[in-house]
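User: Is it possible to get a 3D structure for a protein together with its bound compound? The compound here is zinc ion. I've pasted both below.
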Amino acid sequence: MTDFEAVIGLEVHAELLTASKIFCGCSAKFGAAPNENTCPLCIGMPGVLPVLNRQVVEFGIKTGLAIHCEIQQRSRWSRKNYFYPDLPKGYQITQYDLPICLGGHVDIRLEGEDQDRSIPLTRIHMEEDTGKNIHDAHTDASLVDYNRCGVPLLEIVSEPDLRSSAEAGAYLRKLRAILQYLQVCDGNMEEGSFRCDANISIRPQGATELGTKAEIKNLNSFRSVERAIDYEIERQTKAIRAGESIVQETRLWDTDREVTRSMRSKESAHDYRYFSEPDLLPLDVSADWIERVKGELPELPDERSARFVSEYELPAYDAEVLTARKDVADYFEAAVGIHRNPKAVSNWVMGEVLRIVNDRKLDQELVIEAWPVSAQQLAGLIALIDDGTISGKIAKSVFEDLLDNDKSPASVVEEKGLSQVSDSAELESIVDGVLAGQDDKIAEYRAGKEKMLGFFVGQIMKKTQGKANPKLVNEILRKRLQSN
Amino acid sequence: MSDLISLSIDEARRRLDAREISSLELTEAFLARIEATQGKLNTFISTTPEMARAQAEEADRRIASGDAGPLCGIPVGVKDIILARGTRTTAASAILKSYEAPYDATVVARMRAAGAVLVGKLNCDEFAMGSSNENSAYGLTRNPWDTDRVPGGSSGGSAAAVAARQCIVSLGTDTGGSIRQPAAFCGVTGLKPTYGRVSRYGVIAFASSLDQVGPIGRSVRDAAHLLRTIAGHDRLDSTSVDNPVPDYCSALTGDVRGLRVALPREYFADGLDDDVRRAVQAAAQQLQSLGATLEDVSLPHTEYAIATYYLIATAEASSNLARYDGTRYGVRLGNDSGLLGMYRKTRAGGFGPEVKRRIMLGTHALSAGYYDAYYAKAQKVRTLIRRDFNSVFANYDLILAPTTPTPAFKIGEKTDDPLQMYLTDIFTISANLAGLPGLALPCGSSADGLPIGFQLIGKPFDEETVLRAGDAYQRDTDWHTRLPQ
Ligand SMILES: [Zn+2]
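Assistant: Yes, that's possible. Here is the predicted structure of the complex:
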């Protein structure tokens, strides 16, 4: 049987974090009351003309430079014409034949691989977002909210060079991280500020020609992207094996049923009648402008990861995980800045902290201030472990007590009397108490049953509610068990 | 009263500043004139007497406080394709029947700031698509010189109102001759400025790369006053150009000595009406007698101008008019017919036949498979036409040509033949394709007593030379002072 390989290209739409929309002064912020952020321009009143927000271009250049594109010193705007209620002018102002960025690449590394793979990009262009159609079930009316209309977007198009859902996921996560590091996009897939369409085809392993592709829409989480790609590869493979041919079409991902469904075929595709936008001048970007933006680029995920390895002596894996999100890396560095035990901080961040952050879906937030445990609290907690005040185990329970308040770890330990018992005399008497009347078990230990030691430790911990200093307990126990 | 409505801007200014008359008196005289003649001519879609009186009173206060510029207290009319806050703005289309402008076009805001008095919104062809003002959903406009004839278009109301002394000056828009052709038909003076000289913000778009707002008056001097007020860079229109605005009136020196005037052969070819040919040649000789030099030149791509124009203009229009879909404002039809049904019924019922014809033509020109043969090719020819002008302007200061092939034609004469109608713009279209300033002014009278006009086309942003030559001509002739009965 022929083996097939998948050919996947991704189109990402990233909403930009500019204060105002791309062609008018309205706020571009998410979450306002319907149609609050609108004006004659962005609802397409007669006579209005677009005025370009230069910040959008700056963000385009910044993104292009960060992912190694060639910034085009002359690009231009085009109109993409189609009728839909969420598109007030009847056309979208976008870039078509001359986009702002060409080429570029995003480097990804799959788990378990020891080398990066460079995913080539086709282009980046700028455009305006559309509004949103809403169906009101109560009145059976169709409503339109134009708040999003005119919010600036970057469309980042990869070459069809991804081979699996895992690669697609890694590419998207990396791209999102870069946009977040650049602070040009918040990367929120659920709110739609980071959206992805996938073009998927398959071909016999080793073939060079592309197969017929399907474009998959409505992918609003990383999981959806990965599941939809897997589903689509399987669907196409089965179809071809069954002797059917693939139809070029747009398909929608059904999140609940986890299938893709046909939306429209190529025959019914729009003719967008692109032509260059006469209301805007060609966009000229000076070499000076590009140079200035280049000089202002922040540290990006790859550089930061390398620095974490060299500066904090973290394993490459830790550095990769911590720097995959700017907020996580910032949090890590804030904690290490207070208590310099990078490996311990890394373990806690990758374990407890990210568990809570992900559970609470704070992974969409870029502000670590909103996190339930501050970097300062975490650092304080680890300091208490390192100075022997509490054990790692106790620390986990203290951590829970720190959630959603600004108590210091030390005060929680004090309040609850959780300080470790490190007083030898006290511990000796506890040990003696536990050993009393356990002669048969002591005999078993002495006969070579090493694991009885664990049994005694458990008993002691039980008696001290886990507060006994485990190192001291071990020492005392061994001494007592050896001597008669 | 009749002397008040015949005043030029300078005369009115002198009498207003001397407090011999008030702006309110002047405005009342024009409102009365409109009242008396609107029924016959149908020049206005809406009149705004209350707004006009309030503005006149405000102007009088400014005049009293010594804070009056050239246009303060002067009654003006505005083509109904230009938004003026507080007025209904229809673009002469049924689809915008009850559309209230929510903001001021930049040109209107500048006129208001100058203290001008807005007497009403002037009739035109629907969305400025037409050459006779017969394509208005609010009824056709009649030519004051002969009410059986068209006033030209699309700014027919703007030209006819000035000729009929319903306002001192007016604003029109010119996409392919829409100021100059009606100015010629109505015996008034109209200027299409350089593309980018005047802001298009708030002007309902027909063809964005060609549209330009300009003044119409009974003299070059009046037009120059209005141009000075509206011209200049506007942050809200990215295609407006940030060049300094000269004082156009002080450029009117009357001196044309040494001015090199080119006469393009292609504009004097067969098909030109004999009366028109004679009048335009006489105008050229008049300028020569004033010290200008005349020479024949060629603009070899002239014959492609109409085809080029009707591809580019309609392509842009098909996109610009997509917003009139019944969703957010204007007329909505077929509310119960689903989305597609609403679109279809709204646009089928809201647009007139010429607008639909152009939307279809433009949509076709941009369609996949036709784009290269039509739209892309038209853009290339546009470049060639522009080069024709560049090479002439390397050696000449002005181009002189007829404005229209014939004087005003009869109402209904060309409505069944769109191609004949399109040909009436044959001499004006090229200046739009090349983005050049073009001034139309009267230079004669036909055997039927109808006005004949000629035009002066200048270098980009050289409105001064165009206006100077036109003004020098008017100092020496009286065609512009003649009034319809
Ligand atoms: Zn807006």
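Chain A touches chain B at residues 40, 43-52, 79, 81, 83, 85, 88-91, 142, 144, 271, 273-275, 278-281 (CB under 8 Å). Residues A 21, 24, 26, 38-39, 41-42, 150 surround zinc ion (CB under 6 Å).
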